[in-house]
Amino acid sequence: MKVLVTGGAGFMGSHIVDMLIEKDYEVVIIDDLSMGKFVNKKAIFYKDDITKNIDKIFEKEKPNIVIHTAAQVILRESINNPVKDAITNIIGTINVLESCRKNNVKKIIYTSTGGARVGEPEYLPVDEKHQINPTSPYGISKHTAEHYIWMYNKLYGLDYLIFCFGNVYGPRDDPESKRIVSMFTHKLLKGEIPTIFGDGKQTRDFIYVMDLVELIVQSINKKPKHKLFHLAYGKQVSVNEIFNILKKISGFKGEPEHMKAIKGEVRDICLDTSLAQKELGWKPKHNIEEGLMNTYKITRGK
């Protein structure tokens, strides 16, 4: 079976590619190398942009499955440049879907967001039935793409799964992604003072990247009743707690710098993952302390 991974040189995509290759899948990567640069040499690699015409790649490689991770993932960037965000996350996804349709791809697995698509939650933990009110262009664009995927299933029979993640962290994450753990880790490794936006009491539901990668690869052949799942650890952890754990791991002696909170970011989020546990048999293996320790050690070892 041949699997095409968009964004396959990036943070999550590269880990997915590695695991697919370990399990003897044929793997094709499409990535413009704007963020990640982790290209597995055993994969077929195309440096290309999903917002452009990628039909020729699909025509040549004829993948059976597509795992679509390529995206504009920086919420703050989406606020500054909503047009670019929409082009990448909406138009880019439509391009991928069109190539799937034209080339008889059997299934697409789409990586979406949990908190940003929901907006300010009415209750916690948030389940898949929660009302969707995104408060950022990023949340809107990622959720909009889900509608197109659903439509391609109804019109053309393209099978799909949509995974809505909590705050993913782990090795290979570029600090330019603006994800908290990556920014903190790289700052602490340089002996620099990390920045916390707001009071740091805001909470997120952090999930270690390898817990997600394992599920995504296993889901290639799964056909659950539902098509959209929340995936996270299922626990609220504050930004201050993340800093304090990493401070202990790194031996850093200073305190963080605080700056003004960013509009569009939710205050608190926690995802209900019981549906994934029930239908996919999934449960994350790494708690926050284990995941942060792994992340710090592997990043430091580069």
Outline the fold blueprint.
Blueprint: E1 2-6, H1 11-22, E2 26-31, E3 44-47, H2 55-61, E4 65-68, H3 75-80, H4 82-102, E5 107-113, H5 115-118, H6 137-156, E6 159-165, E7 167-169, H7 180-189, E8 195-197, E9 203-204, E10 206-208, H8 209-218, E11 228-231, E12 237-238, H9 239-250, E13 257-259, H10 274-280, H11 288-300
Parallel strand pairs: 1-2, 1-4, 2-3, 4-5, 5-6, 6-11, 7-10, 8-13
Antiparallel strand pairs: 9-12
Describe the fold and architecture.
With 302 residues, the protein is of the alpha/beta class. The protein has a domain at 2-169 and 206-233 and 273-284: 3-Layer(aba) Sandwich (Rossmann fold). The chain contains eleven helices and 13 strands. It has helices spanning 11-22, 55-61, 75-80, 82-102, 115-118, 137-156, 180-189, 209-218, 239-250, 274-280, 288-300, and strands at 2-6, 26-31, 44-47, 65-68, 107-113, 159-165, 167-169, 195-197, 203-204, 206-208, 228-231, 237-238, 257-259. The strands form four sheets. It has a seven-stranded parallel beta sheet, sandwiched between helices. A two-stranded parallel sheet has the order 7-10. A two-stranded parallel sheet has the order 8-13. Helix 1 (11-22) links the parallel strand 1 and strand 2 (26-31). The longest helix is centred in the first third of the chain and has 21 residues, at 82-102. The two termini are 33 Å apart. The model has no long low-confidence stretch (mean pLDDT 97).
